[in-house]
């Protein structure tokens, strides 16, 4: 491979904001695997956000790149999987599997797509110093004729349209809007863009915690919600605390600590299947990590902020908002969660 931009390249990043800023280029925020795709003839390399290769996990995307991208190009985009008209991140996670036979089986069963939103090189020329607006036009010109499963992400400079996308696209599994300065070059690993994500709140049961990796202070709080059958399900963690607050939480939670998990709603976590929902369940993603946890009597409720759900759990780490001593833990259920209005992913990528 001999391109004007060579792997690895770390992608340009975004910082969070509460509102969509005016005067920028806007795109949907895709919920998939960020990917920098390098093509030089038959040679294809797909790098992840961390620089690790994704190439072997998505053979159908490699074939699509060979068929639909220009012969020599470097593209920034997102690998996604769609099911029933919306993005499915769980299906994407299944693709990171050590067995090549399993990867190829899933590639046929749940094929992935590439959504391209930036062009870093074309032919013998690097575009990384060019302004965003120039790169966007070059992307549209180069990939406009591309066919599925390669798509060019919709983009606009109309802030009012971006605000409508923010509301509509969530129904297709996207998790917000990204705003890009129009006059800047591509800056790897710098938070130049703006991301605006949905934020909702939920009252959750505090059912345990994990120690922080640095020592005997609270690392994360384990959150639960009751399902329709009344069983407390592990739905995610809340972990964004200053170090001093983590120390205070140890003493604050001491009266709720249980000597063992016996009698706890999650007492059977040790028998959970790999990838299961209990907080101690191992998976290929958590290999080598300390997943031990301290059970707490599920008697306390906290309000957390979250962006969106991935199946029946929070997609990202939730943010602590406040304790809710006025709430009964038994009333903390999935029924309180807001469901976005459905929106067909095909209408976005058409």
Automatic annotation (TrEMBL):
Domain DNA ligase ATP-dependent C-terminal residue range list: 217-327
EC number: 6.5.1.1
Family annotation (PROSITE patterns): DNA_LIGASE_A1
Keywords carried by this UniProt record: Ligase
GO biological process: DNA recombination; DNA repair
Catalytic activity, reaction form: ATP + (deoxyribonucleotide)n-3'-hydroxyl + 5'-phospho-(deoxyribonucleotide)m = (deoxyribonucleotide)n+m + AMP + diphosphate
Enzyme class at the top of the EC tree: ligase
GO molecular function, one term: DNA ligase (ATP) activity
Keyword Membrane: no
Domain ATP-dependent DNA ligase family profile: 11-197
One Pfam family cited in the UniProt record for this chain: DNA_ligase_A_C
PANTHER family on file: DNA LIGASE 1, DNA LIGASE 1/3 FAMILY MEMBER
Family: Belongs to the ATP-dependent DNA ligase family.
Listed name of the protein: DNA ligase (ATP)
Source species of the chain: Actinacidiphila glaucinigra
Classification lineage: Bacteria, Bacillati, Actinomycetota, Actinomycetes, Kitasatosporales
């Amino acid at each position: 491979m001999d391109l004007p931009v060579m792997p690895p390249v770390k992608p340009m990043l975004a910082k969070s904001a509460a509102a969509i800023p005016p005067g920028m280029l806007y795109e949907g925020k895709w919920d998939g695997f960020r990917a920098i795709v390098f093509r030089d003839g038959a040679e294809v390399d797909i790098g992840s956000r961390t620089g690790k290769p994704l190439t072997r996990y998505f053979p159908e995307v490699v074939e699509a790149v060979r068929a639909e991208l220009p012969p020599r190009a470097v593209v920034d985009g997102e690998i996604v999987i769609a099911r029933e008209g919306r993005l499915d991140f769980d299906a994407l996670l299944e693709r990171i599997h050590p067995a090549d036979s399993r990867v190829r089986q899933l590639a046929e069963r749940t094929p992935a797509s590439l959504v391209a939103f930036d062009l870093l090189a074309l032919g013998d020329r690097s575009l990384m110093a060019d302004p965003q607006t120039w790169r966007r036009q070059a992307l549209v010109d180069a990939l406009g004729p591309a066919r599925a499963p390669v798509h060019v992400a919709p983009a606009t400079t109309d802030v009012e349209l971006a605000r409508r996308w923010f509301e509509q696209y969530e129904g297709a599994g996207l998790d917000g809007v990204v705003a890009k300065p129009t006059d800047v070059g591509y800056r790897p690993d710098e938070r130049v863009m703006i991301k605006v994500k949905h934020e909702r709140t939920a009252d959750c049961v505090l059912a345990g915690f994990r120690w922080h990796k640095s020592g005997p202070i609270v690392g994360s709080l384990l959150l639960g919600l009751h399902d329709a059958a009344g069983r407390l399900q592990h739905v995610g963690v809340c972990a964004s605390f200053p170090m001093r607050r983590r120390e205070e939480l140890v003493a604050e939670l001491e009266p709720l600590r249980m000597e063992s998990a016996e009698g706890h709603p999650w007492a059977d976590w040790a028998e959970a299947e790999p990838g299961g929902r209990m907080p101690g369940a191992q998976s290929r993603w958590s290999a080598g990590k300390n997943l031990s946890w301290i059970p707490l009597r599920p008697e306390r409720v906290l309000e957390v902020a979250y962006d969106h759900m991935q199946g029946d759990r929070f997609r990202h780490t939730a943010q602590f908002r406040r304790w809710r001593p006025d709430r009964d833990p038994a009333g903390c259920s999935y029924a309180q969660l807001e469901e976005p209005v459905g929106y067909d992913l095909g209408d976005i990528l058409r």
